[in-house]
Design a protein that fits this description.
Oligomer: single chain
Radius of gyration: 34 Å
InterPro entries: TniQ
Strand order of the largest sheet: 1-2
Protein name: TniQ family protein
Organism: Cellulomonas avistercoris
Structural class: mainly alpha
Shape: elongated
C-alpha cells in the first residue's frame, strides 16, 4: 500500500499525458502537483518547469511509483504508440542523422475541447508539433487559452494549481494583477471554440502518423514515397527535413501563429511524399520552398558544400532525377542517374542513411574493370551500327563503369585503363550516337545494372594489377622471344610479337587496338565499328 492508497489506476489510459495525470492525481487529494511530488521525495525548484519524463527516470520514478502504489514502468513508459513513434523517430533523426543532441519537446500541449468533454483525458500525442487536428471529432486542436493566451502546461503555474486539469492553471497579467499577486485564469478549456479541421489536414496527419509508426517499429521496411521505394526511416526523416525548411524564419512573417505554420509545413511535407513520381514531387517541393532557398537542402556541389550537413537520400534522389538530360555526361555518371535512386558520389554525403540496402554499394574498384568489358555483358539491345559490342563500345562501357558514382577525373580513368589520349574522340562519337538516338537513359540503366551485377559477382581477376604487370610492352616481347628460343623447334621475332600480343590481350582483358605501341596491332581510333580483332 502506498502513501496515497486512493490512487488505484496506473494512469487510466496509455495515451494520457504524464503532466495531466499528475495534476488529476494531485487534485484528488486537494494538493498541487509539486506538493504531491515532494511528499513522494522528489523536489522541484520553485518557478522551475518540470519535465516529468526526464525527472522521473530511475530512482525518483521508483520512489513516486511506490508512494502511489504503481509500477515504475507505468509511470514514465506507459505512452501511446503514436506518441512513442513520433518522439522516437524525431530523436533518432537528430541524434543519428544530424549528429546533434536530441532536442527537448517544446513545453505545453494542444487539446481537443470535445475530447476533454468526453473523458477528460489529455492525449499524450497532443504535445507533438504534428498533432494539430482531432481525428475523432474532425476539429482543430486548441493551441492557446483565450483567457491568458498561453499553452496549457507550458509554464510552471500548473505545478502549484489545485484545479482540475481541464481548467487553465496559468495567471492573467493585467492592471490589477502583477508581481507575485496575480489572478488565475481558470478558463474551462472544454468550452473553447474551435473550427473544423482544414481540408486534407486529417489525411496528411494520418499519413505521417502511420509512417512514423512503421519507421519506429520497422525502420528498414520499404514504403513508396515520391514514386521511389525507400526505407521508412529515411522517408519520415525527409518529412522532418522539409518541415524544418518550411518553418525556418517564417513565424510572424508569413504566419501569425505557430500552429498554422506547423500545419502548413506538415501538410506540404505529406503532400510531397504522396506524389506519384519524383518529377511531380520535386515541382511541388520547389513551389512551396520545401527544399530551402536555392535547393540548400540538396546542393549540387562542390563537395565541401554537400558535406556541410547530412543530406536526406530521398530528397537527394528526387532532386537528382530532375537532372536527366540537363547535365553533362560526367555529372550523369557521377550522380548515378541510371539508378531509380540517384545519389551523391562516394564520400560526399556525411550520412549513412540510404533508401535501400543496395544503395550502400560503393563505386567499383578499378581492379574489377577490364580495359573493355566482356562481350554481351551490357544488357543493352541495340542495332549493330551502334557499335555496343565493338572494341570502342566495350571500352566506353568500361570508362562509364569506372566513372559511375565517383569523381574520378577522365584522365585518371584513361591512364588506369591504359587508353591512349588521342582515342578520346572515338568515345565521344560513340556516346553522341547513343544520345542522339534518344536511348541514353536506357544505356545508363544498363550501366547501373552491370554495376550491381559486378557487386553481386565480383570478377576473380585483379585487372588493375595485371595492366601494371604488363605495362612494359618491350619487356613482354623480350620475355616471349626468350621463351620461344628455348623451344626445340624455335620461333622468330614475328612469332614472339604475336605471342606477346595474344598474351597481353587475354591476361589484361584489353584490346590490341588500345595496347602499348610495341604491341598495338594497328593505329588506335580506327576500330569504331563492329569488327573485333580475333584476340579481343
Amino acid at each position: 500500500m502506498g502513501l496515497f492508497p486512493g490512487v488505484t489506476e496506473p494512469r487510466s489510459r496509455p495515451d494520457e499525458q504524464l503532466n495531466a495525470w499528475l495534476a488529476r492525481a494531485a487534485h484528488r487529494y486537494g494538493v498541487h502537483p509539486r506538493a504531491l511530488l515532494e511528499e513522494c521525495g522528489v523536489r522541484i525548484t520553485p518557478q522551475a518547469q518540470a519535465r516529468l519524463p526526464e525527472l522521473l527516470l530511475g530512482e525518483p520514478g521508483e520512489r513516486v511509483a511506490t508512494a502511489l502504489g504503481m509500477q515504475p514502468l507505468h509511470l514514465v513508459e506507459f505512452r501511446s504508440p503514436v506518441a512513442t513513434a513520433l518522439a522516437g523517430t524525431r530523436t533518432r533523426y537528430r541524434s543519428e542523422f544530424l549528429k546533434a543532441s536530441p532536442r527537448r519537446t517544446s513545453a505545453g500541449s494542444r487539446w481537443c475541447p470535445l475530447c476533454l468533454s468526453d473523458d477528460g483525458v489529455w492525449r499524450d500525442s497532443w504535445t507533438d508539433p504534428w498533432h494539430l487536428d482531432c481525428a475523432v471529432h474532425g476539429v482543430r486542436l486548441g493551441d492557446r487559452c483565450a483567457g491568458c493566451y498561453t499553452k496549457p502546461f507550458a509554464e510552471p503555474a500548473w505545478l502549484t494549481s489545485t484545479d482540475e486539469p481541464h481548467l487553465c492553471p496559468s495567471f492573467v497579467t493585467g492592471t490589477d494583477s502583477y508581481g507575485r499577486y496575480r489572478h488565475g485564469c481558470h478558463v474551462d478549456l472544454r468550452t473553447m471554440p474551435t473550427g473544423p479541421a482544414p481540408t486534407g489536414g486529417l489525411e496528411a496527419q494520418a499519413y505521417l502518423f502511420d509512417l512514423a509508426l512503421l519507421a519506429h517499429a520497422e525502420p528498414t521496411s520499404l514504403v513508396l514515397a515520391c514514386g521511389v521505394e525507400g526505407e521508412a526511416e529515411t522517408v519520415i526523416e525527409a518529412a522532418f527535413e522539409m518541415a524544418g525548411a518550411l518553418t525556418a524564419g517564417r513565424l510572424g512573417k508569413d504566419f501569425e501563429g505557430d500552429a498554422e505554420l506547423e500545419r502548413y509545413a506538415r501538410n506540404v511535407a505529406a503532400t510531397v511524399l504522396r506524389q506519384p513520381d519524383a518529377a511531380h514531387a520535386y515541382a511541388l517541393a520547389i513551389k512551396h520552398g520545401a527544399l530551402g532557398g536555392d535547393d540548400e537542402l540538396i546542393p549540387m556541389g562542390p563537395r565541401a558544400s554537400v558535406r556541410a550537413r547530412p543530406r536526406n537520400p530521398l530528397l537527394t534522389a528526387v532532386r537528382l532525377r530532375d537532372l536527366h538530360e540537363r547535365v553533362s555526361l560526367g555529372y550523369e555518371l557521377r550522380f548515378r542517374l541510371g539508378s531509380e535512386r540517384p545519389r551523391y558520389p562516394d564520400d560526399w554525403n556525411t550520412s549513412d542513411r540510404t533508401l535501400q540496402e543496395i544503395d550502400r554499394r560503393p563505386a567499383l574498384p578499378m581492379a574489377w574493370i577490364p580495359q573493355q568489358i566482356w562481350s554481351g555483358a551490357l544488357a543493352f539491345d541495340a542495332p549493330d551500327d551502334f557499335g555496343i559490342d565493338s572494341p570502342t563500345g566495350r571500352t566506353f562501357a568500361s570508362i562509364a563503369l569506372a566513372r559511375y558514382g565517383t569523381t574520378r577525373p577522365w584522365a585518371v580513368i584513361a591512364t588506369n585503363l591504359g587508353l591512349p589520349a588521342h582515342s578520346a574522340p572515338a568515345y565521344h562519337r560513340h556516346w553522341k550516337r547513343i544520345h542522339d538516338s534518344g536511348r541514353w537513359p536506357e544505356y545508363l540503366r544498363a550501366v547501373d545494372g552491370l554495376f550491381n551485377r559486378l557487386h553481386e559477382e565480383p570478377p576473380p581477376i585483379d585487372y588493375e594489377r595485371r595492366r601494371l604487370a604488363c605495362g612494359d610492352g618491350l619487356g613482354l616481347r623480350a620475355i616471349a622471344q626468350k621463351v620461344l628460343a628455348e623451344l626445340p623447334e624455335g620461333r622468330g621475332p614475328e612469332t614472339a610479337i604475336a605471342v606477346a600480343r595474344v598474351f597481353w590481350a587475354k591476361y589484361t582483358g584489353g584490346c590490341l587496338t588500345m595496347a602499348h605501341p610495341p604491341l598495338r596491332s594497328e593505329r588506335p581510333g580506327r576500330h569504331s565499328g563492329t569488327t573485333t580483332p580475333q584476340v579481343c
